[in-house]
Specification:
The strands form 5 sheets. Strands 4-3-9-10 form a 4-stranded parallel sheet, sandwiched between helices. A 4-stranded antiparallel sheet has the order 5-6-7-8. The protein has a 3-stranded mixed sheet with strand order 12-11-13. It has 15 helices and 15 strands. Among the domains are: 4-143 and 150-163 and 212-265, HUPs (Rossmann fold, 3-Layer(aba) Sandwich), CATH 3.40.50; 428-482. By secondary structure, it is of the alpha/beta class. 46% of the residues lie in helices and 15% in strands. Strand 3, helix 1 and strand 4 (61-66) form a beta-alpha-beta unit.
Length: 482
């Protein structure tokens, strides 16, 4: 089976075929850098990290572009998000942008995301946005009023093809119009006139102003990926109006299709309720990381399909934590045994059908990046490895290393939850835990050598209460999480 993905534009799964063989251009709507990233951002960007990782795993050369919105993201009342936050904090908007941008990448790095190849800023591409607006004016798809420029949605017959909405339906949902200068309530701003107190402003053919939110993504995606490219991604909440407007302005400006495949990740709920800053249940990633390792959060996200809602709760995170610990414990024990085997002459091969696991994993990923099924395959393999290591048979280093290589390939290179290398690659906190348990195991061995059985039992029973099971074998004691 080849890679199939769900295309929001056609509302069906389609076989993936890039425009240029062997190359994929992907653009994902990045953050508006006015406040710290929340769990919803985590779901979105982990989801697209998986898309990029898997495309590269399949052998494609991927150019991954993810924008940074530091100007122009307008609220319903027409105010720029950056300016509103700057007024609240009494800081220059670019000071906020720089601080939050560093915070954003810090959070993404902690979860093991591959950084985009290009992270263009809206404020750094004003020239390209002005040129796009000029093209739309020249072709009659936009109009200028009092220094502002608007896109005329009535001029584009396909407006609504992504979201499935008609212009009439959009009108029914429109709030009371406060800016009568627009021809139609649904028309959207391409360029806004800057009032005297507006800090972020640039010269343009229509006077000093700033770009609308939607125009930046069209301008920057086409600059780096071309007028038509393979994949455009973003959160489901961006499908309308943001992505709808992108399609309209881009296709009207160029006269050709914009992006061939549209991928949208679903949203996050908290204990069954929509996560929203307005109702006070929005959880920043930094707050989540105070309670759970970032890799736990990553695994938690992967256990839900990107097109499904993700319900955030401590119980769900604890489940992901337990699962990750068991998986990394398997990797640790496997690598420990492989290290022992390298210094010994062993003939036995580990009886695991690795190709069947690889095939199941790839089948899951080929089916619209089905990470819940892919992670399930990884845990199935982990269970079989644990059963294998519990046997008295001493397996060869080569066979154990082959298992480790597969775990690292699928769980590390694709899913990003299995560390590379030996013990040095494990998360610091989990390595510390492993070292402490091993210290107790070694102490117990000394106690047993002295025939201090009650103390030996006390160590064993105490570890069992903490979820650590000891297994005494001929060549020593091994431990695992029960």
């Amino acid at each position: 089976m080849s890679l199939h993905l769900y295309n929001t534009l056609t509302r069906q799964k389609e076989a993936f075929k890039p425009i240029h063989e062997g190359f994929v251009g992907i653009y994902v709507c990045g953050p508006t850098v006015y406040s710290d990233s929340h769990v919803g951002h985590g779901k979105s960007y982990v989801s697209f990290d998986i898309v990029v990782r898997y495309l590269r795993y399949l052998g494609y050369k991927v150019l991954y572009v993810q924008n940074i919105t530091d100007v122009g993201h307008l609220l319903d009342d027409g105010e720029d998000r950056m300016l509103r936050q700057a007024r609240i904090e009494k800081l220059h908007p670019m000071q906020i942008a720089e601080t939050i941008l560093r915070s954003y990448f810090e959070d993404m790095d902690a979860m093991g995301l591959v950084r985009p190849d290009i992270s263009p800023r809206a404020s750094g591409h004003i020239t390209e946005q002005i040129e796009l607006v000029k093209a739309l004016l020249d072709k009659g798809y936009a109009y200028e009023v009092n220094g502002s420029v608007y896109f005329d949605v009535r001029k584009y017959a396909d407006y609504g093809k992504l979201s499935g909405r008609t212009v009439e339906e959009m009108l029914e949902g429109t709030r009371v119009e406060v800016r009568s200068e627009k021809k139609n309530p649904q028309d959207f701003a391409l360029w806004k006139r800057a009032e005297p107190e507006h800090i972020m402003r640039w010269p343009s053919p229509w006077g000093e102003g700033f770009p609308g939110w939607h125009v930046e993504c069209s301008a920057m995606s086409m600059k780096y990926l071309g007028e038509q490219f393979d994949i455009h991604g973003g959160g489901l909440d961006n499908q309308f109006p943001h992505h709808e407007c992108e399609i309209a302005q881009s296709e009207c400006a160029t006269g050709r299709p914009f992006a061939n495949y549209w991928i949208h990740n679903n949203l996050v709920t908290v204990n069954g309720q929509k996560m929203s800053k307005s109702i006070g249940n929005q959880i920043t990633l930094k707050d989540a990381f105070k309670k759970f390792d970032p890799l736990v959060v990553r695994l938690f996200i992967l256990q839900s399909h990107y097109r499904s809602t993700l319900d955030f709760s401590d119980e769900a995170l604890l489940g992901a934590k337990s699962g990750l610990e068991k998986l990394l414990n398997t990797v640790r024990n496997l690598r420990t045994e492989a290290a022992k085997a390298r210094g010994e002459s062993r003939a036995a091969a580990a009886a695991i059908d690795l190709e069947s696991y690889r095939s199941r994993f790839l089948a899951a990923m080929d089916d619209d990046f089905n990470t819940p099924q892919a992670t399930a395959v990884l845990f199935d393999l982990s269970r079989e490895v644990n059963a294998l290591l519990s046997l008295e048979t001493k397996f060869s280093a080569a066979s154990l290393e082959a298992i480790d290589a597969l775990l690292e390939d699928l769980g590390g290179r694709v899913l990003g939850i299995v560390p590379e290398g030996s013990h040095a690659g494990l998360r610091a906190d989990m390595k510390l835990e492993a070292d402490l348990v091993q210290l107790l195991v070694d102490l117990r061995a000394e106690v047993r050598a002295q025939k201090l059985w009650p103390l030996s039992d006390r160590i064993r029973d105490g570890l069992k209460k903490l979820g650590i099971v000891l297994e005494d074998k001929k060549d020593g004691t091994v431990w695992r999480k029960g």
